[in-house]
Specification:
globular; 41% strand; 315 residues; outer membrane lipoprotein receptor (LolB), chain A; 11% helix; 16 strands
Amino acid sequence: MPFKGRPSANFIFLSLVALLVVNSSSCLVRRRNITRKGGQPTQTLLTTDKQSLIKEIAQHYEAIQSFNATVDMVPALGTVNKGRITEYKDVRAYILFRKPADIRLIGLYPVVRNKAFDMVSNGALFRLYIPAKNRFIEGPNQIEKPSANKLENLRPQHFLDALLVRPIDPAREETVLENLTDEDNAAYILSVVTRTPAGEPILDRQLWFERLKLQLVRQLIFDASGDILTDARYNDWNFYDNVPFPKVIDINRPKDEYGVVITIVKMDVNTSLTDEQFSLSQPAGTELHVVGGPKTETAPTSPPAPPAQKGKKKK
């Protein structure tokens, strides 16, 4: 028996869709290419798995035992959150690294190329010399309580954590792989999770690999509260002594309110470095400040003279 009631809403909708399909023309159908950053209109996205990425990180870390790099730096003070960032351009610097954790950075002022800073760390302790302020700072790498003086929060270890990504430790770290592929992104995100003594999971790091070449493009390091400690971005991977390394590293420390863009000018990988190259002594006459320690004091400009000897009394 034919249907005599009013047509249903679904029937009307389907009829309209069919009509549009039958009578569609080029002006009613729009096709668009999705070109992600660094890609071409026709893209082939690479695929991988979690274990392959973990292995790649370990292989890259093991391939570098030391390096000696000349770099251009653009330090910046301030944060996006506070709406103001001040950049200092044309700073030439030298970075020395030797496993397991020795690192030294020497920065030169623009144009005149006088020493702006000199800092060194052995992984546990750091030393920082600032000639313009006639100040010498030393203390532990671990920041227990951030200082209001942002300079005192500067650590060579922060640079090392960003420059050389440490491998995954399966004994204490768990991993989760995410495929973030949409119109704007095509990346694998490897999240590294640790646990508190009570067994609570904590997000420690995130490693981003773009899917066009499967290269590392970003590393996020978090604190126990989930706030970002370091946001490092990697661009323009090159080979230095047959070892791949990013030419441009953009490091941001939002909680410490500073950042720096490092561009490799020259780099020698796995060269021999001496203990003296990682030795930094307090210059005479400089003010010493021990982070978390006693009040500042000034180093003597010269050794104190020995006490005068009294002559013997005649009998």
